[in-house]
């Protein structure tokens, strides 16, 4: 009977919840934040030390002495928070002002850049216009320079070169008085060359112009007031293939050939492929001034 009771008391109970023993609560230094634990422990140790010193000295412990350091720390910490908040607010205001000023400066710089780009565009247009005008003026200048060269060559004030003929005229070989070349004989030869198509003529290196006169002074022939001596070498630039043939067909050419036959002048003419004639000295205009043919009428 007693054994059965012992046996039945060891039967396992099915369906019943086994209650676990309750755990003891965790100590405060485990559940509290680490900073609070450090502050409280340090303060408790300090308070205990002060209390023991006062007790050994026979003085009563003071609750105010234990509490005022914590209050002071809290006050300082609160003050720091207030100062930090004030500084943060002031800094935020200053940052806002700085940002607004920066935005304003950016706007001004953007407007200045827009104006500068507009001015650059205007200057580029002006440069393009001036370049076009310069090119036009350059073409006009080149055209006028070429025209001036042509006019100067025709007038005798620019040196020229080209093909043509070379004529040599000297007194008759017999030395007679009638065989001496006179100024009108030389002028007749020159007139025949002009009529045959000569574009430039020189006599003994003196370039003939529209104002050139051939005259006699004593026994010498003068060209531009310079005395010439025979033989007289006449260079004429023109069409090398037709200048001689056309010369003999002109009235002045026919007259000159008649004078040569009559007085026995020593005369020769041959073609030249590369003649060079110097420029005549340009006279200074004292009273005459260039006139614009389009705007001024020429008095009859």
Task: Please tell me about this protein's structure.
A hairpin with a 2-residue loop joins strand 5 and strand 6. The chain is an alpha+beta fold and 300 residues long. The protein has three domains: 28-61; 62-155; 160-277, 2-Layer Sandwich (Alpha-Beta Plaits), CATH 3.30.70. The chain has helices at 2-8, 28-31, 34-56, 63-155, 183-196, 243-247, 251-263, and strands at 160-170, 200-203, 206-207, 214-217, 220-223, 226-228, 232-237, 266-277. It is rod-shaped and about 175 Å long. The strands form two sheets. The chain has a five-stranded antiparallel sheet. Strands 4-5-6 form a three-stranded antiparallel sheet, with helices on one face.
In short:
It holds the Pfam family DUF881. The chain has 300 residues and is α+β, with helices and mostly antiparallel strands. It is 53% helix and 15% strand.
Topology, pairings included?
Blueprint: H1 2-8, H2 28-31, H3 34-56, H4 63-155, E1 160-170, H5 183-196, E2 200-203, E3 206-207, E4 214-217, E5 220-223, E6 226-228, E7 232-237, H6 243-247, H7 251-263, E8 266-277
Antiparallel strand pairs: 1-7, 1-8, 2-3, 2-7, 4-5, 5-6
Key terms:
disordered N terminus; 8 strands; rod-shaped; about 15% strand; five-stranded antiparallel beta sheet; alpha+beta; about 300 residues
Total domain modules: 3
CATH third-level topology of the largest domain = Alpha-Beta Plaits
Low-confidence stretches: 1-9
Question: Into which percent range does the helicity of residues fall?
Answer: 40-55%
SS element count, helices = 7
CATH-defined superfamily of the largest domain: Protein of unknown function DUF881
**Integer average pLDDT:** 79
**Ends distance:** 179 Å
CATH second-level architecture of the largest domain: 2-Layer Sandwich
Overall strand count: 8
CATH class of the largest domain, please? Answer: Alpha Beta
Radius of gyration: 64 Å
Major sheet strand order: 3-2-7-1-8
Largest sheet: 5 strands, antiparallel
Shape: rod-shaped
Please trace the helix and strand order, writing H or E for each element: HHHHEHEEEEEEHHE
Based on helices, strands and strand pairing, what is the structural class?
Answer: alpha+beta
- Strand proportion, as a percent range, falls in 15-25%
Family: Belongs to the UPF0749 family.
Region (Disordered): 1-22
InterPro entries: DUF881 (IPR010273)
Organism: Nocardioides jejuensis
